[in-house]
Amino acid sequence: MRPTRVLPALLAVLFAGLPVQADETPAPADVVRQALVRLGDEDAKARADAFQALELVLADNPALGPRCLGRLKAVLRRWGHVDRSRVMTLLGVMAGEEARALWLERLDIEVEPDERVLQAAVDAARYRKGDTTTQRELVRLVRANRMAPTRRALLYETLGHFDGPVVLVTLAQGRTPEEGAEPWVEAAGRALGLGNRRDEASIPPLLTLLEHADKAVVMAAWESLVSRTGQQQHPPEPAPWRAWWKAHQAAKAKPEPAEEGEDGDRYAPPKHVHVPTYYEVPIPRPGSKVVFCIDVSQSMYGHGIQDARRHLSKTLRELPIRHGFDIIAFNHKIQPFARRVVQAHPVMKWRALQWLAQLETTSLTNLYDAVETAFQYMGRGRVPAADPVELDMVFLLSDGAPNRGRYRDEDRVVKHIGRLSKRDVPVHTVAAGERVFDLLKRIAEATGGTFTDAFE
User: Fold this and answer.
1) Distance (Å) of CA 253 to CA 98, 228, 247, 256, 394
2) Which of 135, 193, 238, 452 has minimal Cβ neighbours within 10 Å of its Cβ?
3) Is the CATH code 3.40.50.410 the one for domain 277-453?
4) Strand-strand pairing, 393-398 and 427-431
5) Using 50, 70 and 90 to split pLDDT, how confident is the model at 72?
6) pTM for the whole structure
């Protein structure tokens, strides 16, 4: 149950610092009015307090929700992902058709490009799980024609928070044969939706998805099985899971749900039974954050870029959801995929693979600036990120010597990449041509990384 009274200390913040006694709690409408004003405050803490007050008050006074929508739309236009995520939570709490419509509209990566906000929107469905109108609307939407696969995938994942046989059938079956072949991202969305359910009926369709031809779907099904059952010892392979399910049914024992991660993240990492690799180099730590720097200069045309795409596609598909990644393509210029480390959610994998397929090889080789851009994500380099993250490793694939960028002399390239790395973040190098062997070996040695011949 949600608390029925707003904390007096929080109200004191909202009401210009004036003392508020427990027996002098303002009327809910006054709290909402003051909180909406504070949503425009430049101070992030003030906005956070306002969101907290709104969530508490609207939970008990849903009729006040409609007056909030104008300000919430302004927040979606003005503020960053933290505030937009809080809006998603509020939209889950709020009653009314307009709030539901705004929430459903944001469940689309073409409308909301930040996967962190999308996760908050998916999670907000938990507040609506008893709302049969919302459930029917979600079922209608996932069956609609001409919908982008990424949007349908997110709607499938959201639908998993609702109960009922229609939901189960929708998630288990996906598209009908008349609707055509199912893109893998939709199958992965169904797997995540099935993982959100708390009934045993979700397990057989997850076992079926574990046999899917695409590894990205297999990973989503596996992570859902681990989350749903608490069985963390089985790898993402059908045989051990089917053996477990057969034994479980025979014993007529109910599977125990997995515990949440320390931060309450629903994508808590399973035990260490699956290690993705890139050119056979392991990415071992659960929740690793990795940046792939890929040479797309003219000399990579043909077999070089095709092989690079194939290997990176395989790795991205194998990444668990808790992992983070970005791809930085480079020729004479630097071309990041996301410009930050993003969660390895199936929707982000789908977009990254589409982006990778469209890259064209042209021009020269700005190797140093690509690596520096990767380290800027963790607060190093000339333009450090404002919100740095800890990287686990950087991969660098190239076939030629640097001839553009801040540093072109190989000794200086090695020296300054070593300074960026500080040997606590290795740069693993992959050579797509013999002429760059010496440079990439030296970079790997200077950073504590490994060297790989791409064609070995």
Assistant:
1) 44, 14, 9, 9, 45
2) 238
3) yes
4) parallel
5) very high
6) 0.89
